Fold:
Amino acid sequence: QVQLVESGGGLVQAGGSLRLSCAASGGTFSNYVMGWFRQAPGKEREFVAAISRSGRSTYYPNSVKGRFTISRDNAKNTVYLQMNSLKPEDTAVYYCAADVSNTLTGSDSARYTYWGQGTQVTVSS
Structure:
């Protein structure tokens, strides 16, 4: 029903910035809580950010708070992740996800029904 396609990943030096995009199709984008997760090789998938349906509320773990910003443009069916002050430990495949069943933001991956294919972010030291 819902398809998500991430873009914007790449190689960046420590301290640099990247902006990821996730384009959604199918369903009604403005009805979904949206989230970003990441997964490094051999590691569990980790919550990065979430945004409410209207975009008025956001939620971040301490590991990225103050460095990353999630936003959405419901007119364009797109969610973004602006990543500043990148560190080597941010290296991972980044996934966007849609939660079609909740109205509040959350960090539990089980809440998210649809997932994109991911985009690689590599931060060199």
Remarks:
- The mean pLDDT is 97.
- The longest strand covers residues 18-25.
- The chain is about 0% helix and 50% strand.
